[in-house]
Structures are given as C-alpha cells and as structure tokens.
Design a protein that fits this description.
The complex is a heterodimer of chains A (119) and B (111).
Chain A: E1 5-7, E2 10-13, E3 19-24, E4 31-37, E5 44-50, E6 53-57, E7 64-68, E8 74-78, E9 87-94, E10 109-110, E11 114-118
Chain B: E1 9-13, E2 18-23, E3 31-38, E4 45-50, E5 55-56, E6 61-64, E7 70-75, E8 84-92, E9 105-110
Parallel strand pairs in B: 1-9
Antiparallel strand pairs in B: 2-7, 3-4, 3-8, 5-6, 6-7, 8-9
The chains are: A mainly beta (119), B mainly beta (111).
C-alpha cells in the first residue's frame, strides 16, 4: 500500500523565481493538505483540497496557490519566492471527513516532504 | 495558536516506557486529541488519537484524563528509533480541517 509521495525531495531556487511541488495521496484518499515547516518550528497549514477545490486556507499570501487533479494528486505553487519561503513543505492526505459520512475517518497522513531552499 | 502545552524535552532509557504528557485545559467536548511524531527532517508520522476513552494501537497507548484536560502518550518499550519530536494536537474531527501544531516534546531515548 503506497503511502503519500512527494517530489522533488530537495529543490534550490533563487529569489523571485516560481516553484511547483507535487504530491500523490495515499491509496484510497481523496483529500490533500499542504503545510509549511520552517526550521525548528511546527508545521503551519497552507490549504486543503477536496474535489479539485480549495476547501480551507491558512494565513498564507496569494503567492501560494494549489491545484488538485482528477486522480486526487495535488500541486503547490509558490510565486515570487522570498528568502523566508525556505522550508520543508509537507503534503498530507486523508479522507474528506464529510458531515454524515463515516465518523472519525479524516486522520491526515504525511509524506516525506520537499526541502525548498531559496537563495 | 496551539491549544496544547508540552514539555520541551524529555529523556528515557531504552527498553523503558516513555510517558509523554500534554495539557489541553481548554479542550472542547467535540475535540479529539491527536499525537504525531517527527523524526529529524522527515514528514510527521501519525501515532494515535482519541476523544475520551483510552486508546491503544500497535505503536502506543493514549490515556486521557476523565476531565479531558490532559493526556499521556505511552510508548511501552522505547527504542533508539523512537527518538523524535512528539506533537500533541487537539482538533474537531470531521470539521476544522487544519492541524494546529505547537512546539512539541523532543524525546531522546538513551542506550
């Protein structure tokens, strides 16, 4: 059973560039969340995608955008990179946790992350 | 802001039980307690979660106090591979989708 996969593993960009990170969810999951983790801190929620729509968004600027494909995989795009965007970017997959659906089923499972360095 | 308080670090001898405390005094009635751990520079690993009853799985046990204001994660026989940062998170399952992370507890297992 394949877990959550992310690509690339590491990435180096310069300020002002754009980057795309990719995530494939765990088999059977259709919901994808993205988190940013700066060095020495806990992850911070960026947004969650379900049914190809952004379902909830954290406190991140519009430079951060995403997409979900019909096969449930997802991309995170960051434009106009800043030095402060250097971080570990984490993808988590889950079931959607819909009201009226199976209870207590929306636990998030994380991938290995993509380490982004902005120079 | 995170709704949980954890000690910044703990040590435990290999082979002994590691007991990691978490305070969540403002927890609401419909909020679950989740535990994740993160080994250096890897993605967080889900461990266990519970609402009000004690829970056990192949990785750990979760003990939640009767008033639900605190909980303890128990790793019954700690190994060196259990060295990691452990995060306690409270959230409403099936509703608020984001996980709000605190600083966690750095657990060091010593030989």
């Amino acid at each position: 059973d394949a877990g959550v996969t992310q690509s690339p593993t590491h990435l180096i960009k310069t300020r002002g560039q754009q980057v795309t990170l990719r995530c494939s969810p765990k088999s059977g999951h259709d919901t994808v969340s993205w988190y940013q983790q700066a060095l020495g801190q806990g992850p911070q929620f960026i947004f969650q995608y379900y049914e190809e729509e952004e379902r909830q968004r954290g406190n991140f600027p519009d430079r951060f955008s995403g997409h979900q494909f019909p096969n449930y995989s997802s991309e995170l795009n960051v434009n106009a990179l800043l030095l402060g965007d250097s971080a570990l970017y984490l993808c988590a997959s889950s079931l959607p946790g819909l009201a009226g659906g199976p209870p207590n089923t929306d636990t998030q499972y994380f991938g290995p992350g993509t380490r982004l360095t902005v120079l | 802001d995170a709704k949980t308080t954890q000690p910044p670090s703990m040590d435990c001898a290999e082979g002994r039980a590691a007991n990691l405390p978490c305070n969540h005094s403002t927890i609401s009635g419909n909020e679950y307690v989740y535990w994740y751990r993160q080994i250096h520079s890897q993605g967080p690993q889900y461990i266990i979660h519970g609402l009000k009853n004690n829970e056990t799985n192949e990785m750990a046990s979760l003990i939640i106090t009767e008033d639900r204001k605190s909980s303890t994660l128990i790793l019954p026989h700690a190994t060196l591979r259990d060295t990691a940062v452990y995060y306690c998170i409270v959230r409403v399952a099936m509703s608020n989708y984001q996980l709000i992370w605190g600083a966690g507890t750095k657990l060091i297992i010593k030989p």
